[in-house]
Amino acid sequence: EPEVTQTPSHQVTQMGQEVILRCVPISNHLYFYWYRQILGQKVEFLVSFYNNEISEKSEIFDDQFSVERPDGSNFTLKIRSTKLEDSAMYFCASMLFSGEQETQYFGPGTRLLVL
Amino acid sequence: AQSVTQLGSHVSVSEGALVLLRCNYSSSVPPYLFWYVQYPNQGLQLLLKYTSAATLVKGINGFEAEFKKSETSFHLTKPSAHMSDAAEYFCAVSGRVTGGGNKLTFGTGTQLKVEL
Asked: Using an 8 Å Cβ cutoff, are B63 and B7 in contact?
């Protein structure tokens, strides 16, 4: 069964450093998402991406964040200058259709620790 | 805007007992509703979803949920709990906006513990 994959599974970085989290969505899916889950808290929406552009973003997704689909298969989340509060589990999700068949499939996540 | 409220951050049941995890939603447009399960150190797995067909939705692992518009609820049930059901369960809602792919808004989660 096709699945969303994410790399790395864990990343430790120093405050102020740039990180890139990578996701390979399910092939032929059209919609892509990033969510995050701070330890012990609920899963929060960051950004959605469709037709090579951001379709919606949350308040969390400020200028330090960016997303890209560089080669038609990968979907990346970049944090330019990490802060301690960026420590979280980051989930990528993809979806084929919007509407009645709408189902987002999640990857296993990347645990980011900012020191 | 959409939101979900999950009553009870922790629920404990005996193996073989009924599982009932509560979820109430708020949505300004007709909602799509989902239950996801998260096992320790793993990602989110879809259990079931409601999109507008039958109000009683059957999912994987023997779980089901009933959409009740009058009560704005989408509670998750399983007739007989198994030890392997111990996990965190998240209710989520998205709006029926055509095009664009809708974000999920999650509840705070319910940790299910199953005891012998």
From this structure: no
The Cα–Cα gap between B89 and B8 comes to 11
Polymer length in residues for chain A: 115
Query: What is the tens place of the pLDDT at every residue in A19-66?
Result: 999 999 999 898 999 999 998 888 999 999 998 999 999 999 999 999
- Count chain A–chain B contacts defined by CB atoms under 8 A: 67
Q: Let me know if A1 is exposed, middle or buried by CB neighbors in 10 A (0-12, 13-18, 19+).
A: exposed
Quick one: which H or E segment has residue A76? strand A75-79
Residue B93 structure tokens? 């809602």
A109 contact residues in B (CB cutoff 8 A): 42-43
The answer to whether B106 contacts chain A (CB < 8 Å) is yes
Note the pLDDT tens digit of each residue in A57-101: 999 999 999 999 988 789 999 999 999 999 999 999 999 876 666
| Rounded CA separation B104/B100 (Å) | 13
